[in-house]
Amino acid sequence: MTRTRTIREHDAPSPFPVRLPNGKWVVDEKCKCGSRRSVHMDTVAYGHGACPPVSCEKFTFVEFVFATKHRAAKLETSR
Ligand SMILES: [Zn+2]
User: Fold this and answer.
1) What is this structure's pTM?
2) Total count of domains within the chain
């Protein structure tokens, strides 16, 4: 498997995955710039900083990124 995108290193601990009360698993969040929170830099909070590749200055939440069915099933059994 080749990696075509770089995964940002984080100092702040990731809050993901997190299970919503409706049973859906959130694995990441989408910013208004279109990038995921996981590729934004940290502030005191995980991924709340800038995203230099797209000149985004600060993470702004627009929507959750949910786990695929397969991933969600795995997360269910790992708890
Ligand atoms: Zn952004």
Assistant:
1) 0.85
2) 1
Examine residue 24 and state whether it is found in any structural domain, yes or no: no
Q: How far is the CA of 77 from the centre of ligand 1 (A)?
A: 32
Residue 50 resides in a domain? yes
Per-residue pLDDT of 19-64, as tens digits, reads: 999 999 999 999 999 999 999 999 999 999 999 889 999 999 999 9
* Domain annotation covers residue 72: yes
Neighbouring residues of 33: CB distance < 8 A, sequence distance ≥ 6: 51, 54, 55, 56, 60
Q: Tell me, in angstroms, the distance from the centre of ligand 1 to residue 24's CA.
A: 23
Q: Which domain holds residue 52?
A: 30-77
Distance 7 CA to ligand 1 centre (A): 15
Look at residue 21 and tell me if it is in a domain: no
